[in-house]
Amino acid sequence: MEPTQTWIRDIGAHEGEVVTLKGWLYNQRSSGKLRFLQVRDGSGTIQCVVFRKDVPEAVWEACKGLTQESSLMVAGEVKADPRSPSGYEIGVTDVFPVSPA
Q1: How many CB atoms lie within 10 A of CB 42?
Q2: If you write DSSP's letter for every residue of 59-70 in order, what string do you get?
Q3: How far apart, in whole angstroms, are the C-alpha atoms of residue 29 and residue 72?
Q4: Whole-number Å distance between alpha carbons of 59 and 49
């Protein structure tokens, strides 16, 4: 099944679904086995969480190579998270760098 492409502003309508977002890397931080990608599009910003054990090594390495404002596509499951400003985050399954900044 093909992931649904959506905007960040509409993310709440896709809880539990696998979606694709297109946007830019706003910020990134890492804590060893996790990477937190802050992705923005024209409608907002959302945190995308990459667990090293849950993605292929090529996806992990692609995340490491991203620089701020690189354009990318992110695929993953929408999960509710009350700590998030939007109330949701993305559990990343794939990252597609489009153009480095």
Answers
A1: 10
A2: HHHHHHT--TT-
A3: 16
A4: 12
Query: pLDDT class for 86, splitting at 50, 70, 90?
Result: confident
Distance between CA atoms of residues 40 and 88, nearest Å? 14
28-84 per-position pLDDT tens digit: 999 889 999 999 999 999 999 999 999 999 999 999 889 999 999 999 999 999 888
CA distance 29 to 14: 25
Amino acid of residue 25: L
The answer to whether the CB of 40 falls within 8 A of the CB of 92 is no
**Residue 1 predicted with pLDDT over 70:** no
If pLDDT is split at 50, 70 and 90, which confidence band does 85 have? confident
Neighbouring residues of 22: CB distance < 8 A, sequence distance ≥ 6: 5, 41, 71, 72, 73, 98
